[in-house]
Amino acid sequence: MARTALVTGGSRGIGAAISQALKDQGCNVAATYAGNDAAAAQFTEETGIKTYKWNVGSYEESTAGIAQVEADLGPIDIVVANAGITRDAPFHKMTPEQWQQVIDTNLTGVFNTVHPIWPGMRERKFGRVIVISSINGQKGQFAQVNYAATKAGDLGIVKSLAQEGARAGITANAICPGYIATEMVMAVPEKVRESIIGQIPAGRLGEPEEIARCVAFLASDDSGFINGSTISANGAQFFV
Ligand code: CAA
């Protein structure tokens, strides 16, 4: 039976590769996006994957959006909390707004995405929760106090959910991508980016598909005993 998957931030970057990989694995996939209508329309045209627009930082929008996805595609078996933003600034320059925007999207957004889906997973005795964290949640990063806080928080979320869901056939795991060739990393000033690549033993940025393949594995029925784990995919840049 085909599984239904929801991927937040699923029409661009790592999320788009995840949506495609889950579709290739036979899932019915819904991808959410926050604002870029043109990119979402193009993504749907190219992949046939349906997109839904809502702000993951809003519980009301998330609940309504998830209800619509479930009405269209059926109960959600797999949820990938991938939507994330950066508002980088050295701490002495970071504004409360930059702090709050990142907390709302990257951390509260995970709560808002998983919480409405969780009761159904418990009832059906199956679920796969995959949260896209970051290498910078593991090691911290200059100019990312806000982002690193959320990505470290993601690891606490999955370790706790894993314990709560295990008896109900639900797994919760995190992936910590290193620096991947996406718009988010390309937005880093070129000189800084070059220096970051110099710190990656693989000598290159990762590809979105390399993260998507980790997600596809964790989302599969075969991965049921992997629960509460963190998979690092960073070209040997950092070891926990
Ligand atoms: N390490 C050490 N020093 C750094 C640094 C770093 N990673 N990045 C910047 N600096 C230095 C600059 O060289 C500069 O030093 P000088 O004053 O001696 O020249 C100083 O810090 C910052 O200068 P400014 O006060 O002018 O900084 P700014 O207000 O203009 O902010 C910045 C610039 C936002 C920090 C910019 O440099 C930047 O975006 N840095 C990259 C931050 C980063 O790595 N973000 C990761 C994004 S990718 C991602 O998040 C995906 C993921 O999960 C991996």
What is shown here, in short?
48% of the residues lie in helices and 15% in strands.
Provide a descriptive summary of the structure in words.
With 240 residues, the protein is an alpha/beta fold. It has one domain: NAD(P)-binding Rossmann-like Domain (Rossmann fold), CATH 3.40.50. It is built from 10 helices and 7 strands. It has helices at residues 13-24, 37-47, 59-73, 96-114, 118-124, 135-139, 145-165, 183-186, 190-198, 208-219; strands at residues 4-7, 28-33, 50-53, 78-81, 127-132, 170-177, 230-233. A 7-stranded parallel β-sheet has the order 3-2-1-4-5-6-7, sandwiched between helices. The radius of gyration is 17 Å and the shape is globular. The termini are far apart. The structure holds acetoacetyl-coenzyme A (CAA).
Describe the strand arrangement of the main beta sheet, using strand numbers.
Answer: 3-2-1-4-5-6-7
Q: What assembly state would you assign to the polypeptide chains in this entry?
A: single chain
Quote the average pLDDT.
Answer: 97
Q: What's the shape?
A: globular
What small molecules does this complex bind?
acetoacetyl-coenzyme A
* Structural category: alpha/beta
CATH topology: Rossmann fold
CATH homologous superfamily, by name? NAD(P)-binding Rossmann-like Domain
SSE succession: EHEHEHEHHEHHEHHHE
Largest sheet: 7 strands, parallel
Please count the helical segments.
10
CATH architecture: 3-Layer(aba) Sandwich
Strand content: 15-25%
Unreliable stretches covering 5 or more consecutive residues:
none
CATH domain class name: Alpha Beta
The total of beta strands comes to: 7
* Helix coverage percent: 40-55%
